[in-house]
Design goal:
single chain, 77 residues, mainly alpha, 1 helix
Amino acid sequence: MPNIPIGAKGERKLLVTSECAITFLGAEGPRVLSTPHMIGHMELTSRDAVSPFIEAGFDTVGTHVDVYHLAAAPIER
């Protein structure tokens, strides 16, 4: 069993580009970070935060997400 310290933290910065922006409102609609991409980067950040504490050959996997996407993050121009 890995010994992951309580309070382990991670940080990742994400540049919002058209590849991770919503498209369902069309090219002329608001182009902001999609919630699925936000959650994906949250999971990668969590994984990277604990990876130094888990054994080689093991990894993490998300099982539940309860998140609010409170504000739009527009494409960086």
